[in-house]
Amino acid sequence: MKIIKEIKDLRDEIKKIRLKNKSVGFVPTMGALHAGHLSLIRQAGRENGCVVVSIFVNPLQFGPKEDLKRYPRDLKKDASLCRKASVDIVFYPDAKKLYPPDYKTYVSVRGLSSRLCGKARPGHFEGVATVVAKLFNIVNPDTAYFGQKDAQQAIIIKKMVSDLNMPVRIKVMPTVREKDGLALSSRNAYLSGKQRQDALILYRCLNKALGLIKSGKGQPYKIVLAMRGLIRQIKTAKIDYIAIVDSHDLRPVEKISNNCLIALAVWIGRTRLIDNIIVRGIL
Ligand code: AMP
Known about the structure:
Bound molecules: adenosine monophosphate
Order of helices and strands: EHEHEHEHHHEHEHHHEEE
Number of helices: 10
Number of strands: 9
Helix content: 25-40%
Shape: globular
Structural class: alpha/beta
Strand content: 15-25%
Radius of gyration: 19 Å
Largest sheet: 6 strands, parallel
Distance between the termini: 46 Å
């Protein structure tokens, strides 16, 4: 496995792989790798002759009051996990190289970026789309792998790729959870033992919503009210949003139907957690 820092070195390496007629699978990450990331990496390995993982804590997608500085970073551990998962190349670029002082270009996926998480995190998805577009141009992958855990991000990236005619296939893999249902996230590391328990409320809420839909009590506003009621019972929890939306345009739905997305963001203490499910095969 190679760990490459420079853009030119990465391009040269990809050229060599292309000469061997190997397809390239790409998994963009911010590091602090866990089993969620590894499921994307394994899928990339099953489907490609070469797997590239980028590890880059992208400053552009953090707001001024967010956790850029304290975001967990551990290249040694990440590299060891990548090696075990048979990754071919870890791309570990420097922020100053990706965004030199005269940097001016930003990718904005309008509408989709201002909904759900975009409301509380203005500029976040512009930062995400910009870095992913840059990474796609550098890595030139056949397929890139994203997690359903960040549903809005995956929807925005798919739209960017389609609108800008980018020659890459996007695959979205299911959310990997702890045994008790908590969605794996690098930010779970911020939680105390008690908060870790409280954080289960997100998954419980989503299950409550599914239960209501299955039993036919499926009016979106009633489901949201029931979810709010559950979260209110947890003292450390503060709702950012709960939304039931169309999984293509992220607009609120008036009626539950298959393929709608139930998504929420909840603060547990100082940690903002997100989770979601897509309604499938129930109705
Ligand atoms: P991050 O390092 O948080 O930017 O995530 C990198 C990629 O891993 C994104 O496509 C995420 O959606 C995906 N990911 C993060 N957590 C999970 C999870 N629990 N299950 C599946 N994919 C995940």
